[in-house]
Amino acid sequence: MTAVSGGFAVRVMVTEVWDQVVVPVDAATSVAQLKEEALHRALKRREVFPDRYVVKFHGALVLDESVTLARLGAGPNAPFIILPAKREPLR
User: Which of 6, 26, 68, 72 lies most in the core, judged by the most C-beta atoms within 10 Å?
Assistant: First the structure.
């Protein structure tokens, strides 16, 4: 399931809820847009506060979230991870 109406789908693991979601995108989608959509799908909340999360692609932190998926080199079924920007201490 990678073709999605003129685009493709990527997999995003959202560690806050330990859930993986599939997000339909195209080459012009920015990492910021991907992050916001994935958070909405995984957290199932209206407000998701994207600035509280970071994105990793192939294990590396994506520092410029305005970059497009094409420029990043992401294609169909590419894996992303979204995790909290600040780690929460265990209690």
Answer: 72
Q: Kindly tell me the number of DSSP H helices and DSSP E strands found in the chain.
A: 2, 6
Q: pTM of the predicted model, to two decimals? A: 0.86
The CATH number that domain 3-84 falls under is: 3.10.20.90
pLDDT tens digits for the chain (91 residues)?
A: 444 445 999 999 999 999 999 999 999 999 999 999 999 999 998 899 999 999 999 999 999 999 999 999 999 999 999 999 986 666 6
Domain spans, the chain = 3-84
